[in-house]
Design goal:
Elements lengths: L1 E4 L1 H10 L2 H11 L4 E5 L3 H8 L5 H11 L3 E4 L3 H9 L5 H13 L3 E3 L13 E2 L1 H10 L16 H18 L6 H13 L4 E5 L2 H11 L7 E4 L5 H9 L3 E4 L2 E2 L4 E2 L12 E5 L10 H11 L2 E5 L7 E2 L2 E2 L6 E5 L13 E5 L2 H11 L20 H11 L2 H21 L6 E2 L13 E5 L3 H10 L29 H9 E4 L7 H15 L1
Parallel strand pairs: 1-2, 1-4, 2-3, 4-5, 7-8, 7-11, 11-12, 12-15
Antiparallel strand pairs: 6-16, 9-10, 13-14, 15-16, 17-18, 18-19
The structure holds pyridoxal-5'-phosphate (PLP).
Pyridoxal-5'-phosphate binds next to α10 and α11.
Length: 509
Amino acid sequence: MQYLLNTDLLMRALQKKSGLEAEVLERCRKKELKGWVLSSSIPALYEDLRQNGDDRAARTELKRLLEGIAILSQTAADIHESLDSSGLDFGPAMTVKAVRALGLDGVATSKPETFKGADIKARTPGEVLEILKAGDKSDDRVPLLDIPASYHEVLFDMEREMAEVLRSGHFILGPHVARLEEKIAQYCHCRYAVGVSSGTDALLVSLMAANVGPGDEVVTTPFTFYATAGSIVRVGARPVFVDIDPATCNLNPDQVESRISKKTKAIIPVHLYGQCADMEPLLETARKHGLAVIEDAAQAIGASYQGRRAGSLGDYGCFSFFPTKNLGGLGDAGMVTVSSEEFYQKLVVLRTHGAKPKYYHKVVGGNFRLDTLQAAAICAKLDYLEGWTEKRRQNAFRYDRLLSEAGLMDHVQTPQELVPRHVYNQYVVRVKNRRDDLRKFLQEKKVQTEIYYPLPLHLQECFASLGYREGDFPESEKAARETLALPIYPELTPERQEYAVRVIKEFFA
Ligand SMILES: Cc1ncc(COP(=O)(O)O)c(C=O)c1O
């Protein structure tokens, strides 16, 4: 539950130091409630506290008051628009704007009448505490993702980093990108990381660095996002598909060897849904045949395989910071991790049109640069990634338990963590019968789901010239018919998970 705490409530909490207002603040401190305060409220609170003339004591008390409460900065536009708005006074107009913009549950205020006529919920401290006590049943909508829900934790850090970039006027590469590269390399147990424009470009530039081109073949899975195979075709090479292991939906290493030919240059295993592919046999095959291994770790930042992090297992690790990923940016962004100095140097040159030095082009590269603003936002979020990953894992285990306790295991097969640590970018169940009907039913009950992926790549129209047919990869085709991703984002509450499972039970009843 997220509420904007109005200045009047904070003032009363200060004056009375107890009572319902103070109790609301206490709940925020204990993280049972996500409280926000407008930055414009702070000077008034400070003045109130300083009335007795002790500046230091006022600052200390103000800091304590704001413990556990996120401060929402207002833009010049917020202020101008609130000045222009009719109907409400200036202060409440700013509050309403903020509540709407962040999608908060409402405003907590000791004077709800101030917000009369506004289209947001204005609750007294007593009402907020009542709702907390009853458990938040007011909203049984379960979205697939709730990015604004994470802002309470990170907005402060993100804004600070991004403001630095805005003020510096340096928007391409630069020190913020370098810092993110260093942090990601360290996080992924690699020597280097190269920031690029997307996960797709991470794959593309890695294939270019590995000298994969026309006439070459690259072995990969058909049960993945389009970009894995799309990037192979874009460098002029041919994707050679190998079916998946149904237990993990990852490349089946037993079938790889038979697909290796004289033309094979590389293998791209995908760590689908956040669980690493079985890398040891793949690396062995690659070593035997002198192949490059490019990990598509777009969904798997922080995942491990035998104690080693995704991205450090092959020659190149490709990551995506697409907003739905575990470490999501504010748009498109990506990263390649490597430990070889030679590969690193190649990637850096290819990323900027193959130029070294500037305007002297050694090789044909591309514009694969990472925006500085993206790097700043991602860098701020990286410090929270481990905590979010643990929450995703807890949510996954809770679903496992709830689905089993509901007696649904005959209908729904839960995902298995065969390669720890799974980071659950997606929690994907198998529904043997009536998957699409179940999805429709969940949608009607406001539980969002997704199918990753409804059509395997060997059957995609754009790859028809590769000559594959239906039946070529039966496990991938079966997975496309049976898989269903349930919401798993870190802020997902147990109540919402329970609701989703109740709806599934109702469907099969
Ligand atoms: C497995 C996989 N590979 C590659 C990509 C491409 O990443 P991006 O969307 O950042 O280009 C994605 C992202 O959706 C992905 O899930």
